Amino acid sequence: MKDNPKSKSHESAINHVSGKAIYTDDQRLPSGMLYLWPVLSSYAKAKILKIDTANLNHIPGFVTLLTADDIPGINNTGTIKHDEVLLPHDEVNYWGQPVVWVVAETEIAAQKAAEMIKIDYEVLTPILTIQDAILNNSVHGDTNIMRRGNLTTALQKSDFILTGNIEIQGQDHFYLETQVAWVIPNLEDGYQVYSSTQHPSETQAIISEVLGIPRNQIVVTCLRMGGGFGGKETQANPIAAIAALAAKKTGCPARVRLKRDQDMITTGKRHPFLAQYQVGFNSDGQLLALDIDLYSDGGWSVDLSFPIMQRAMFHIDNCYYIPNLEVRGQVVKTNKVSNTAFRGFGGPQGMAIIEQIIDKIARKLSLPPETIRERNFYHGEGETNTTHYGQEIVDNRIVRVWEEVKQKSNFESRKLEIEQFNQNHDYQKRGLAMTPVKFGISFTKTEYNQAGALILIYQDGSIQLNHGGTEMGQGLQTKMLQVASQALGVNIKRFRIMPTSTDKVPNTSATAASSGSDLNGQAVKNACEILKQRLAEVAAKVLNLDEPQDLIFEEDWIYCQSYPRYKIAFDEVVKQAYNQRVSLSATGYYRTPNIDYDPKLGKGRPFYYYAYGAAVSEVEIDGFTGTFKLRQVDIVQDVGESLNPLIDIGQIEGGFVQGMGWLTMEELVWDEQGRLKTFAPSTYKIPTIKEIPKNFNVHLLKRAAQDGVIYGSKAVGEPPFMLAISVREGIRDAIAAFGNRDFILLASPATPEAILNAIEQVQLKLVNSSEP
Ligand code: MTE
Ligand code: HPA
Ligand code: MOS
């Protein structure tokens, strides 16, 4: 892999590790910068009776306060639904909600003033769990339904029916760089915003609404993020809006940067899910019917909860053909943070649920779970290869990745070894599990599937590259440089990648849904092709050729295919182009073809294609402590013809480890008053280098170029996250070895406590097996 010329290091790798890479908050700040500090709500649900701000003027450096009354435009930062106040007027809806922001000359002064503000509340009873919300009919929006086939008859015909409830918990993004933004008021009522945002155009739109000025007055720029993971798709907006509001009110530059605890307390997380299902199947394990209700905890406002629920519903089948299926999705409303996008966008919840159901079927029938998985894969043509929402899976690669990982991991022989180990050890047990992933690529909001680029060539032959995507560590800029260099046939060193900015490319989509390279890559290529065509005409004249179409652009030279000796340097063509008054800048544009979805019918072709992968995880658990060790992981991931294998493998490793954190160690705990107890790394355990498996083998599927995607590559950002379901199922397999029950109840995340409880359950050897 290392000798693959496409395996370029991340374009900022050296600057990342040497500390030279500039993040939003590292920029040289203008003089007169003001700082903000929030006053957070003390209750999860309460009426605001009085805000006492007396004596603040005595604090040196205190400047002003921001309350709901200061908002000149619309007091809302909700994008899908206008239900998210930037600053509350009369009630608070979650513990930690910012009620007032203090503006001061220093951060310390702002903090001091904030501590002096007293707010009187009338405390109300909050709704804190999905179950509580269901009982109180506290919901966001209507139930979404997708269905096919005939459930009633299919259930009647099934040899077996199982029912159950599954709860999957949330996850904090824990990006290394917390939410941050700063704003300079400039010119006449213009605002330059620097924001750590995945979606600069939406940040611009929200600021425009909050300030009540048109979008062209606002420029939002994102240099790079220290991680986003979905947590900066919408949740960066209120932070930037508050900084902009302070800049507007004071006429001074203003800055918000959240401390780690403030970030964890105030920002939305991955949605917890509750599933209630009934599944019908045959004695050979063939799935016949699935009737399932999904509930997600949206928190106090809608944010992106609807498309996230929808993606969970799109992925409730994972890789399995379920002929009769009805899935109902309901987002519930609680007095918690507003949950948001997180790597996989609902897909992980949907898939973790169906994989647990599959495991339960397997144990019921005393068959290996991987056998049930294989027997139910989408296959063939037509109906058996078509999802419940009506999309046919052209180019189905499930079996390919599955067989390859099975063989590469020596699955069968290791299974026997593990059985032996388990027979010889009473208190340590090992488990092995293999799980597949099929993940739909495209924004499910069809209009988001477009992108733009802007390329500027200067007279000296140096080039600025702009596009609508943002860099959050995933290597998008590296890939875009590679695409541009390949498309224009020039050395990569000619390019300077510019910070993402709304004054370069307008109306951009979030960098999300793993489609950053797919969309922006095509737009960049398009801009290069436009420039190439113009330059080819200039070059053809110089070379005395009639046909500019024949010209090849390669390694900084332009030459004629049939007479390679007729060549001209790229720099020279650029100079000539300027002299001949030929434009040296171009915008590129792309929209994904051939996708559509009708939400009313619950049918269509929402995804341009699917990304596939499969993983085998081997774990060992300790019966005394409930801890587990991940002994070995083998992955085969389909990334098409990789744009950059080095970066893709990094994405696969990182995604997998983050998924493992979600399912096995990251536990969010709220108390009975809705106060988050786990708002620091001391109480919220994320994976570290110690938890990374010693044997971690990642393979990219070979000969896998995908038609119609940028240079045959496939999206890689989110799909590997869900491969971590194999760790959870591996742990379940190890727990099973402690007893002989026909189902294994394992809470999520599979913390030592959850594992010990599960071991206790299997050792009870109860015959009556009804899952609560
Ligand atoms: N990798 C790093 N290092 N940091 C991130 O924040 N975000 C993930 C993934 N990989 C993320 C990451 C998420 S949620 C998505 S949607 C994709 O990257 C977005 O980038 P892409 O579309 O360019 O792959
Ligand atoms: N993924 C991520 N973000 C999104 C999506 C999606 O499918 N749709 C809207 N925002
Ligand atoms: Mo990723 S959750 O689509 O930002």
Automatic annotation (TrEMBL):
Its cofactor is Mo-molybdopterin; FAD; Mo-molybdopterin cytosine dinucleotide; [2Fe-2S] cluster. Belongs to the xanthine dehydrogenase family. It comes from Planktothrix pseudagardhii. This is Xanthine dehydrogenase/oxidase. Residues 18-125 form the Aldehyde oxidase/xanthine dehydrogenase a/b hammerhead domain. The keyword Iron applies. Its EC number is 1.17.1.4. InterPro entries: Ald_Oxase/Xan_DH_a/b (IPR000674), Ald_Oxase/Xan_DH_a/b_sf (IPR036856), Ald_Oxase/xanthine_DH-like (IPR016208), AldOxase/xan_DH_MoCoBD1 (IPR008274), AldOxase/xan_DH_MoCoBD2 (IPR046867), AldOxase/xan_DH_Mopterin-bd_sf (IPR037165), Xanthine_DH_Mopterin-bd_su (IPR014309). The lineage of its organism: Bacteria, Bacillati, Cyanobacteriota, Cyanophyceae, Oscillatoriophycideae.
